[in-house]
Structures
1.
Amino acid sequence: MTMDQVVEMLTSPLMQRALLAAVLVGAAAPVVGTFLVQRRMALMGDGIGHVALTGVALGWLVGSWANLVPQDALAVPGAVVAAVIGSVVIELVRERGRTSGDLALALMFYGGIAGGVLLMKVAGAPTRTSSATCSARSRPSRRPTCGGPPGSPPSCSASGSGCGPRCSP
């Protein structure tokens, strides 16, 4: 990469905003991370991400009901609102309940994913096939793989999921 390319890249408003965001996140993340590790809530960011999926789906649903163009115009605001509400709820459960932070996080993880998937289905989002189907649909040159946890028997359909040879045990 030449110096002219670097200068051209840094003069782009998009790259300037991206660099500013990276510097701000780089300054704030260690402080927040240290705080969460001290409180034994290191997975809080992952849990909030799961709840944010529910907010994205809710924003998409509201946007489609309100006939907004594009329909996902409220997806990011919905994710932010859901993440803040999820954080407050997790703290209330942890403080007032007789549960540990880990249990409250687990509830947030699975509740966030379930809520997001449910709302996306209600909104009419395209659905994907389950993990039991062949994962080689987009790569026919590869041998298909079966879904299911490691060590368990294969869970492919009798037709081999329509993407090549049947999965073998």
2.
Amino acid sequence: MREDLWTVVNVDDIPDGLDDGPVAHFSAVWRSVAEVYRTSNHLTVTTYFDEHGNICREHIESEDRGRRMSDSDVNTVLNEIAPKSARGNYKGGTFLNLRCLPHDDCAGVSEDYERLMITKIGSTNEYR
């Protein structure tokens, strides 16, 4: 799934004297707060980390911000990131009726599992 990788670092963790050593040294001391991956089906996955380096959130979106994502697109990536066997028992789901500007199109669904929650904004085959 992961073709390209970009790393976002917490600017508070950049050491003094940036010009004192090679770039490899700096990447070893910076704490990554997010990494962005490009999938083979033209989606990007942004992975966010907590202060201990554990994944705390992942965000899936289309590379083309105007293009909506299908169930097939989203579920292929979801099953790679968090296989059903790793999610834990299904606890429940709910419809989301959220309001957001400018187009008021933030409705969606949420699925709650023992180990994670999946929130999809949009409707079937029209996720954003």
3.
Amino acid sequence: MAQFGKARKLDFKEKLTGLFVSQDRVFLDLAQEKGISKAFEFYACLSLLYAFLLYLLDPIFQMILSGSVLLGLPDIGSGAVALLWVFLLAFLFVASAAVHLFARLAGARKPYSETFKAIAYGTGPGFLLGWIPFIGIFFFILPVYLYVKGLTVMQEISRIRAWFALLMPVLIVTVIIAIIAVAIVMSLLTSFSNPFSLFPSSGNMPWLYS
């Protein structure tokens, strides 16, 4: 890990700028923060900005491609801004916990707060620029790099171990979703191959003959 001397206290702008131009230095500085409150505030502000911008610009997205799903963006109504924001906040805690579990399995010994900070700060650039039409989705690739960088600095683990901690939760969720999807498809195929199975047999309905 690169050495930069004494860590500094950063304001909001310095944190965000550093995540774009000097990741090693900024994560070294952020590692000195105590607890998760400042990281949570950083994430909460940018995620709220992201949700609000999606709401304001969604009509434009709809006009461009008749559905923002094609842009990788959800359709946002006025009542859904708060719901989306709450979901993003909850996701931060759940995702951090999942990554921290596998980081521990990979040899990390620092507390949950360090993993939380890596995920919270790493997501910032994605929220800041992820709303841009067409190219916004690519700004959510940068956070993946920042997650790895943040974990290597804050948890003091190798990049390979950091990748393991990040990819294992994704792999497990993907497998679970695939199993559920296959089970649903197989159930539907079985029902369509024998349409009468959708209805109870006469033996189960003695009242028809009474």
